[in-house]
Every structure is written in C-alpha cells, then in structure tokens.
Amino acid sequence: MRIDIDQDVCIGAGQCALTAPDVFVQDDDGYSTLLPGAEDGRSPLLREAARACPVSAISVSETVG
Known about the structure:
The protein has a single domain (2-61), classed as 2-Layer Sandwich (Alpha-Beta Plaits). The chain is 18% helix and 22% strand. It has two helices and four strands. The protein has helices at residues 15-19, 46-52; strands at 2-5, 24-26, 32-34, 58-61. Strands 1-4 form a two-stranded antiparallel sheet. A two-stranded antiparallel sheet has the order 2-3. The longest helix is centred in the last third of the chain and has 7 residues, at 46-52. The N and C termini lie close together (10 Å).
C-alpha cells in the first residue's frame, strides 16, 4: 500500500496517531508523519486512521507490482 499525507492540508489534529500509533506520529510542529518502517502500510488500522482525519489529508492506495 501507498500512504500519502498532504502536509499542506494537515492541521495536526492527531486523529491518525491516536487511531494507528504504529503508523503515524506527530512531528515537532504537531503535524502528522509516518513512523520509519511504517511505509509498507500493513497496519490493520491504517484505513480507519485515514478516515479519522478531519481534513482528509491522508490517502491510502493499493500499489501494483
């Protein structure tokens, strides 16, 4: 899976980090970022975390290959 966080849209609400703390964390400025090694998108809560974002800054898509 591919996980994208639109940093221009993110407001730092932290819902993604609360929902899937094994994938997302908030940086020093409070904005969401991926934890190192979480880019593979294997968390069962990943899609729920994307849905929890109040501004839809997170997109999850299937990778082909």
